[in-house]
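Researcher: Structure prediction, please.
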Amino acid sequence: MRYLLILISIFFISCSFAAEVSLRDYDEFDIPEGTHIPVISLQEFSTAYCEEGDKVNFITTSDIYLYNKNVIPEGTKLSGYIDKKNEPIIGTNAAMRVFVNKMYLPDGFEIPIKSYIYTANNNIIGGELTPPAKYIRMPHYQRWTMFRAMGVLQAVPGGERRMGEHVTIASGANLIVVLIAPIHMTHTLIN
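Model: Predicted structure follows.
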């Protein structure tokens, strides 16, 4: 019985060495959160005629290098959708946020990503305050001379604001995509 057990264990050990597959040499790595990817828009989209969930497409304008490797080559396509949309109201322009969720390398390999179109306003495009609807003339006295005030009339913004306007991103507009989660890369193009 002992010999049979030894023979079976030798058989499994030799099978495990024989079944070892020789894989090609490549490294897995992560593209870190916060990486900026310059892109251009492939179509025009606007708060005037687009709805939440409408798809938008972009293409990278330059190579992105990490660890001396071209990890995101120029011409990589990115796709996403309008995640949030606010209509214009009195005092505020329309706003939208675009979530980018897929990256297609030039060889067709698809990688899921989590990113937004970057803006300084928490990744929201638009949403600025509108200009005042009217200005009020108000005297501003600068100094007193010979018992009378010397002043000027200055225009001061009134309390009411104009109606907001829609936000449009033109086709071919230069934008930046910022990653909100790291991309685990297992596939790179070899030149």
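Model: Residues 18-24 have pLDDT under 50 and may be disordered.
Researcher: Thanks, that helps.
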